TrEMBL record:
<protein>
    <submittedName>
        <fullName>CopG family transcriptional regulator</fullName>
    </submittedName>
</protein>
<feature type="region of interest" description="Disordered">
    <location>
        <begin position="132"/>
        <end position="153"/>
    </location>
</feature>
Amino acid sequence: MIARTRMNVYFDPELLKRVEALALRQKVSKSAVVEAAVASFLTGDSAEKLEAAMSRRMDRLGRQIDTLDEDLAVLGETVSLFIRIWLSSTPPLPESAQASARAKGAERFEGFMQSLGRRLATGDRFLKELSRDVDSFDDTPQADQFEPNGDQV
């Protein structure tokens, strides 16, 4: 039999209850539970814990990358659809109106950039709104049912 040395330790009452409960479940003594916990703390099984933690983190990162990939696809399709519709429905301007149109465009772009900055600062995101709004569009036509000039097919 292995010789053991007695040691008196003090536990928080809640921690002691947890040790007692584990000892009952495992059908071992409280000393065995505490000894195993201290041995685990002092030995090198932290590598296994580190590997398990890294695996969980990698899984979470993988799911986040998948979500980002979906969000990027939605964003790309949204921008390309907007550009296609805008280019096919905007008539060319005569030479006399181009200077004022450029000035108005610069003014509108500045307003757009300020609005974008506010939304990014507050955490409002188009894709979050889109996911909330998609459920409310059950009876409306799909985006791909529209022609570039705005008419339904």
